[in-house]
Amino acid sequence: MAVDQALLELAQVPVLRLYRWATPTLTLGYFQSLRDRRQHESSLDCPVWRRSTGGGAIVHDQELTYSLILPANEVHGSSADYYERVHGVAASILSERGQMALLHPVRPGFDGSESGDMPAESATKHRTGKSASEPFLCFQRRASGDLILWVPSETGPSGTGHKILGSAQRKRDGAILQHGSILLRRSEQAPELSGINDFLSPERRWDFAEFGEQFADRVLASFGWTKQPSQLSDAEAELAQRFQRERFSKADWTGMR
Amino acid sequence: MKAEDLKYLESHEWVAVGTSGGQQVATIGISAFAVEQLGDIVHIELPGIGDSVTAGEEFGEVESVKAVSSLYSPVTGQVLEVHAGLVDDLSVLSDDPYERGWLLKVKVDSLSDRLLDFAAYKQQCDSH
Asked: Structural domains in chain A?
């Protein structure tokens, strides 16, 4: 996260990063309260960090984290445009293994086709401007543009929806840092959440690296960018270390609210 | 207040400067365009009464549906008043951004030299 923050301040070109965490870790959205983690017992043993991006808490375990950094002169759309672009790429990857994932609030029609109806609960939520009652975990929240995997149900005609990709942003002087998490499998630290592989037969399940590579290539292609693997510059590395030392590793940052 | 009578920063904060008790007082808010771009605002963080703000520097943060953005001050001075009821009803930011949606009142030491009039600000928004 310190690297992402340094890139938000210094990057001259768009950067896409994909990473996993060395140990199962909880990250809080910037405005969340640290004490709210007590609501989520299964992740209490995980170390906790506070992101600078908004949204709900993520248990980083059986997932891929991505960050997309756009310098101000590369921002050519709204927040929603970037969520939809990246989430649309993931939806197209899933469709190749027969899974239907749609951007909230689009729901499948009764015949399995897409339908644009907005459910009543969502229409109401968009008016209130309050998040006090929002679930603690990102993957239990629903915001416009979240990627929902629809799984056929034996009990209902339209199936059940499972959020498998959510993203959040931090803006600074016109530049954007977009963080997101792609949930690939159920985690013991968040057993209430199902991931993509939980709904695939064993032979069709994704290898994490394979999914990540396809995702990265296609996100870049969707923007018309060329892949240029790179290292941090000295200035970026130095600023990242400073952010790590002076912000992200500090108890008064993690516990700021 | 009418949008046409206000000054703006490129970063979408508006300011109206008046006089009260012989001192210059700036009322600060965020423009209708910004509120529309942000979408539903779910949290806002503002300085306290007596805090100093500096023109062009961050004075607060706002979280819309999942994007956290910094708020920048159009003036340098000291905070006289903070819109206390705002956190309980953030919808006024979109319903009435130039009156009931104000954020701060600040005793002005100096104004930013990067303020835009309505026409210039509108041009900037239209080019987005």
From this structure: 2-254 (3.30.930.10)
